[in-house]
């Protein structure tokens, strides 16, 4: 299956899906000591098999495992690298009207790829469900390298931990880049040809309220944008030509709330013009994301997947409004290089957004139907 599938069809998904009740209960049972880890994995396997069947039924040609083996969209990946440990800070992440569970990642040695990385194990199972089907391909989503860097410097305790093992930022960035590069190649060797970096770092940079605090700490928006670009691109050197790597930019997606606001203009010269990915999955479901004008900076020939349908709320968008917005975006990126999706996944963490499974699939059907209306 070629990686042109999503572009040819002009509809796509971001990747996470609401966790079924059986899976949520199994996680609680594991915490309570009622089942073993192997038994949890069996529940996960069944849930993923069912999800992939539903993805196919609803017309999706690029499928994921729904991130059903993760608690978080990002931290589980970080914990899977050597040299990083799971920590419990005083606070979680602060969203618009809610605070998340308190978990983080911290350096405890030199960072390196672990051949038993959970994302690699998860992908290998997903691939068994798609390899014999010529109508679909699979995708593995992982948090961007810049997201790991941002997590590791979050808070004074994390920064002190880094200093024990790294004398300078350059060495830290090099190890992050190499660990990710090795993970990408391991996924490729396992059959993966489509990998997406999920990245909230850019969504935070554009938020002026966020910057009012960071500037006081001595940070420069431009310097941090340059740094995030460097960290991400460090993982993207010398990859196989038939490996499609894309990135998804989000401003927070937790329990139907959000963390940041701001248009793409401050980062367009960095992200759109210089990050070495083939496609951009961009949040555009409300005014927090600004207008389409910054898309003019997207490198010619690259894909832009417009997240015009929200995954946060069950109400269905008006199809004609979505069509009109796609046409507006086509002033900056040729229509043939555009596609449509939800603005994010439905469950970036296991809590999930505030809608039902049926409403989730209604959103997917809306994306598919509107896309077919525009491009067919």
TrEMBL record:
Pfam families: Meth_synt_2. One of its GO terms (biological process) is methionine biosynthetic process. Coiled coil: none annotated. GO terms for molecular function: 5-methyltetrahydropteroyltriglutamate-homocysteine S-methyltransferase activity; zinc ion binding. Residues 170-350 form the Cobalamin-independent methionine synthase MetE C-terminal/archaeal domain. Signal peptide: none annotated. This is Methionine synthase.
């Amino acid at each position: 299956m070629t990686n042109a599938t999503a572009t040819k069809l002009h509809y796509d998904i971001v990747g996470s899906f609401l966790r079924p009740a059986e899976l949520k209960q199994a996680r609680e049972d594991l915490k309570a000591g009622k089942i073993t880890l192997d038994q949890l994995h069996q529940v996960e396997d069944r849930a993923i098999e069912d999800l992939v069947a539903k993805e196919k039924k609803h017309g999706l040609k690029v499928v994921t495992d729904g991130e059903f083996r993760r608690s978080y969209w990002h931290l589980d990946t970080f914990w899977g690298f050597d040299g990083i440990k799971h920590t419990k800070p005083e606070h979680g992440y602060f969203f618009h009207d809610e605070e998340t569970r308190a978990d983080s990642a911290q350096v405890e040695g030199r960072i390196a790829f672990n051949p038993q990385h959970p994302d690699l194990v998860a992908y290998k199972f997903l691939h068994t469900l798609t390899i014999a089907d010529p109508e679909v391909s699979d995708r593995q989503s992982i948090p961007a390298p810049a997201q790991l860097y941002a997590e590791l410097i979050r808070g004074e305790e994390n920064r002190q931990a880094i200093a024990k093992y790294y004398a300078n930022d350059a060495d830290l960035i090099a190890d992050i880049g190499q660990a990710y590069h090795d993970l990408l190649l391991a996924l490729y060797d396992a059959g993966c040809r489509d990998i997406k970096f999920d990245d909230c770092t850019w969504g935070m940079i554009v938020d002026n309220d966020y910057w009012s605090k960071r500037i006081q700490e001595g940070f420069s928006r431009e310097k941090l944008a340059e740094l995030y670009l460097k960290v991400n691109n460090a993982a993207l050197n010398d990859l196989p030509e038939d490996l499609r790597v894309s990135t998804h930019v989000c401003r927070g997606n937790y329990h139907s709330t959000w963390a940041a606001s701001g248009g793409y203009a401050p980062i367009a010269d960095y992200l759109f013009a210089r990050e070495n990915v083939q496609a951009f999955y961009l949040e555009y479901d409300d005014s927090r994301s600004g207008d389409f004008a910054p898309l003019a900076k997207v490198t010619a020939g690259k894909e832009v997947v417009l997240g015009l349908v929200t995954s946060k709320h069950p109400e269905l968008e008006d199809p004609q409004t979505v069509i009109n917005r796609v046409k507006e975006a086509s002033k900056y990126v040729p229509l043939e290089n555009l596609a449509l999706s939800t603005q994010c996944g439905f469950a970036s963490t296991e809590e999930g957004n505030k809608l039902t499974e049926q409403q989730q699939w209604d959103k997917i059907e809306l994306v598919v139907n509107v896309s077919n209306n525009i491009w067919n």
